[in-house]
Design goal:
Helix content: over 70%
Number of helices: 3
Number of strands: 0
Distance between the termini: 40 Å
Radius of gyration: 19 Å
Number of domains: 1
Shape: flat
Largest sheet: none
Strand content: under 5%
């Protein structure tokens, strides 16, 4: 347990140090890239899910689960980008 606690503390210190030395462009690029990833994940889930349904008569439930997961990821990444933009503006 002590090793886990030490590792988490080391990770937390490294993360805090990174945010202090990172430039403004990097701080904006991270949420923007995560948002792009979420958008691509949503498109991929829909494309391959519908393709699997058409080719193999798979249930639509797998497509819906993938879309829900990707939409949630998209929402959280958009919220993160808005938070970063608000934090920079203040």
């Amino acid at each position: 347990m002590l090793v886990v606690s030490w590792t988490l503390n080391l990770f937390w210190l490294g993360l805090n140090y990174f945010w202090r030395i990172a430039s403004l462009e990097v701080l904006l690029a991270i949420p923007a890239l995560l948002l792009l990833y979420a958008l691509l994940a949503l498109i991929g889930y829909v494309y391959w899910g519908v393709r699997e349904v058409q080719e193999q008569d798979a249930p639509y439930a797998s497509v819906m689960v993938g879309v829900i997961v990707a939409a949630t990821l998209l929402y959280f990444n958009f919220s993160l980008l808005q938070f970063v933009l608000q934090a920079i503006g203040q």
